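Tokens for chain A. Residues wanted.
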């Protein structure tokens, strides 16, 4: 739960309940009997970022630009002492 707490600052009790419910849905879709950390991480990603847009098309130029931008976030995050550890970088539209 420490990892979840670090990734969810400012979430209310209802937000956290929703996160765990989403995690349970993710686990159930995989026929699991228990919710694990990966299920919660996937649920948090769905809540914070949203679902992948399957019909969205990104040009190669834009994909490269976004990749450089996101890499910049990761590099600065790694260099700053008081910055949270980067968990995932995505350029999925």
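Reply:
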């Amino acid at each position: 739960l420490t990892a979840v707490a670090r990734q969810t600052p400012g979430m209310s009790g209802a937000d956290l309940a929703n996160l765990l419910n989403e995690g349970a849905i993710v686990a159930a879709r995989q026929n699991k009997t228990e919710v694990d950390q990966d299920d919660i991480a996937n649920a948090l990603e769905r809540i914070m970022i949203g679902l992948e847009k399957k019909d969205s098309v990104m040009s190669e130029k834009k994909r490269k630009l976004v990749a450089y931008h996101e890499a910049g976030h990761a590099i600065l995050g790694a260099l700053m002492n008081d910055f949270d550890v980067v968990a995932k970088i995505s350029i999925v539209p």
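The first helix runs from residue 2 to 7. The mean pLDDT is 83.
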